[in-house]
Amino acid sequence: MTRYLLRRFASTVVLLVVMVAFVYVIFYALPSDPAVLVCGKGCGGGQLAAIDHKLGLDQPEYLQFWHFLEGIFVGRDYSSGPDVSHCAAPCLGFSFQNDQPVLSLIGQRLPVSLSLTFGAMVLWLLIGVSAGVLSALRAGRFTDRVVTAVSVLAFGAPIFVSGLLLLMLFCGYLHWLDFPVYVPFTEDPAAWAKNLLLPWFTLAIAQSAIYARLTRSGMLETLSEDHIRTLRAYGLRERRVVGRHALRGTLTPVITITAYDFGYVLVGAMLTETLFGLPGLGQLIVQSSNNVDIPVVAGLTLVAGAAIVVANTAADLLYAVIDRRVVLA
Amino acid sequence: MSERVMSTDGRRVLSVRDLTVEFPGDGDTALRAVDGVSFDLAAGGALGIVGESGSGKSTTALALLGLHRHSSARVSGEILLGEDDVNALDDESVRRLRGRRIAMIFQDPMSALDPYYRIGDQISEVYRTHTGAGRRAAWAKAVQVLDRVGIPDAARRARARPHEFSGGMRQRALIAMALACEPQILVADEPTSALDVTVQAQILDLIDELRTETGMALLLVTHDLGVVSRSVERVLVMRDGRAVEQGPVGEVLKAPAEPYTRALLDAVPRLDGPGREPRAPGEPLLTVTGLTREFRQPGGGLRREVLRAVGDVSLDVRRGETLGVVGESGSGKTTLARMIVRLLEPTHGSIVFAGQDITRLPERGMRAVRRDLQMVFQDPVSSLNPRRTVGDSIADPLRVQGTGDREALRTARDLMERVGLDASRHDRYPHEFSGGQRQRMGIARALSLRPKLLVCDEPVSALDVSTQAQILELLGDLQEEYDLTIVFVSHDLAVVRQVSDRVAVMHDGELVELADAADLYASPRHEYTRTLLAAVLAPV
Fold it and tell me: Who among B95, B98, B106 is closest to A226 (CB)?
């Protein structure tokens, strides 16, 4: 087990380094002229050269990459003539737009995105897995068909439609909730949850459809396996056969997709964030993409990538807990 | 084998009357898997149900525990377990019977246990379900029954998960689970069919002992007449869902009243049956010297353990002969076969085929050699591409070797006729054929290039005895006609005896004995060969 853990962690680190290199190549090594972007149209040659120098763009590529890595792991200094700005590790550079450190831009918005993602994830797992189990146990019958139809509908409905409908229903028509405003968890947990309720459900409804389908097919497959027949032949109660034995065999693919979705939703929930006015990472990525704010986009890409890699490592560890045979493979 | 008589007081523990199981088919038609079968099982008695695949024997066994409930099957008739009719009880009452009064063990011990939980927990769970015992008491019970079925160091091994057990140990663990609640009846559905002969002997001995000790009755479902004759007192022969004949095992197997039983018995290959006519030894067609294959074990960084699947095997295969290769699972026989046809690269050693060293021949050079070197695989289901028509599958090797499309398809149809298939069905797909027919296709495909050497890896192991006999006969005929040299790999000593001129015995990757078939079976020299032969069960 220890060896398995070490191997898993080692490969996570390697993966992260490779990812950093890829992000660098995509955003920095490809031909573009950041100095022009920073400075705007009216800048002359002298100003451009100064900015190039400040950003280190006048150095050879390999040195630039080295500084990029250095920035992430130990921090780096940006100097433009007399004034030196230090950027502590992990340094992702400064926004071209407003010269703020990318890290603090992301840091301000991360709690919002994490709140949104975690809550929605809990909901979509609960809804998706239980709908999937229900529909597997009633396979081919009315309940199964209803669940399937609702899943297709939920999956097919765009977020700006389902979210708007929820908003109209609960805020506009029934007045059960106020229009959501983000309240940090640390300030008022109850208000935090109450305000995030609609965004959570909006995301969860779309996501849980996939989970329901996945759980249904996994459950049907596991239920037809020999060891389930053995349990039934020994008189175990059906509730126990399904809840304790069959469900465990079904969870592996669910965990895989959850790990991927976690990273994706963390940075990619721009529609939900925009719709509910949540200042999260998704909004930031839309804004900075529009403004070609390369350091911010690159930084967000790194964060999303890192989230997916870390979530996958967590998933691998969970597999090992669920199924000990994984450790041998 | 010896006929065993257990003390029975004539009381019946199980009485089945007119059992019928139907599965709905297309439209109004229903498939009658079991058709009006009746039998009794005396307290402490043992009844064997034998039949080929599709005879309805397993369907019958499952019905006894009400395991067709909530499936599409329709079960009718009476299944009297003491006073209770399993067929008439409600779900909850049936659930309480299962495992407590009637327990079942299954064919494939690899998949019959839950891979996610510890073996001790699985047995405890069954015990607690029926007795309401506490955790500790249930765990103690699990350890006790595991110890009883001969799991060494049971207190520690109870913590293992199924993948840490060998096939034989898993079957013991399943028997332990059956024992936990001391049922009156043990239903065993092909309990040893997936096990090696030596392990089979141990498991059957264990079941015998437990019967004597606990007085439970045994219902043994199997296709293997040898197993039946060894382990039960009465036998019921099934065919197409009907009971063909039943009676004391000695009478039925020695003097069967029904022609079907007779035919079934005749199809079983026997150790003491007629072997092949001895033929003049030809010169070697294939010579392997010091052949070794090592596999790196998965996991474990730099100091990986190396598994030696085949170690230092040297032998000749002579032109025109059939060389049988026998061994138990893990003996390296399949690895050897795959190296001979270069589907696997040897780690060391050399392979000389028809005077040419092909050990390291690059694939480009191998292509010409592959014409002469073909293989037939065990599983006739998975070794044919399900999305290609049968004719195409058989014609493919010809196409690869550059034969034109029409010519290749014509040859394929000729071959289909030759191996006993209807050539007009060449545009059908494999799933439309039976297992025996599919194995015929596998043979036709291997023959399409008119090879000199045919390597058959367990070609009949997945087939019923009567089908098996037909395929073996076909191979014999084709050998004459096509002037084939055959390497015949099998775990079944009786089959190998029937088809081979010479026999090689493998054990733990090594060749332990190689001799003329008649000599090897009459006077085995190696200890291991003697053990293997002693474990083989013959009917009657």
Answer: B106
Question: In Å, how far from its chain's centre is CA B120?
Answer: 28
What six digits make up the tokens of B16? 């089945």
More confident site: B298 or A221? A221
pLDDT in tens, B385-421: 989 999 999 999 999 888 888 999 999 999 999 898 8
pTM above 0.80, yes or no: yes
DSSP of B253-266: HHS-SSHHHHHHHH
Q: Around Cβ A224, how many Cβ atoms within 10 Å?
A: 10
List CB contacts (< 8 A) between A6 and chain B: none
- Shortest CA gap A272–chain B (Å): 39
Task: Decide if B299 and A325 are in contact by the 8 Å CB cutoff.
Answer: no
Which 3 state secondary structure label does DSSP give B178? Answer: helix
Residue A133 in tokens: 């189990």
Q: Best mutation site among A6, A9, A227, A238 for testing chain B: the one with the most B CBs within 10 Å?
A: A227
Sheet holding B356-357, edge to edge: B306-318, B284-296, B348-353, B356-357
ipTM of the modeled complex? 0.81
What size, in residues, is chain B?
A: 540
Written as one letter, the residue type at B413 is R
Q: Which one of A231, A325, A329 has the shortest CB-CB distance to B115? A: A325
Tell me which of B114, B125, B141, B177 to substitute to probe the interface with A (most A C-beta atoms closer than 10 Å). B114
Q: Report residue A104 as tokens.
A: 């603090």
Q: Number of A to B CB contacts under 8 A, please give it.
A: 75
Q: Which residues contact B70 (CB under 8 A, 6 or more apart)?
A: none
Check residue A101 and report its DSSP letter: B
Q: How many CB atoms lie within 10 A of CB B159?
A: 13
**Which residues of chain A register pLDDT less than 50?**
none
Q: Which residues contact B261 (CB under 8 A, 6 or more apart)?
A: B237, B244, B245, B252, B253
The span from the CA of A18 to the CA of A2, in Å, is 25
Q: Which of A3, A7, A227 is nearest residue B114 as measured by Cβ atoms?
A: A227
- Is B296 in contact with B460 (CB distance < 8 Å)? no
Q: How far is CA B478 from the centre of its chain?
A: 25
DSSP, collapsed to helix, strand or coil, labels residue B453 as: strand
Q: Tokens for B248?
A: 């004391």
Q: Which long-range contacts (CB under 8 A, 24 or more apart) does A267-271 make?
A: A267/A113, A267/A300, A267/A303, A267/A304, A267/A307, A268/A304, A269/A113, A269/A116, A269/A117, A269/A120, A269/A203, A271/A158, A271/A159, A271/A160, A271/A163
Burial of B278 (0-12, 13-18, 19+ CB in 10 A): exposed
Beta strand extents in A12-146 (DSSP E only): 75-80, 83-88
Angstrom distance (rounded) from CA B315 to CA B287? 6
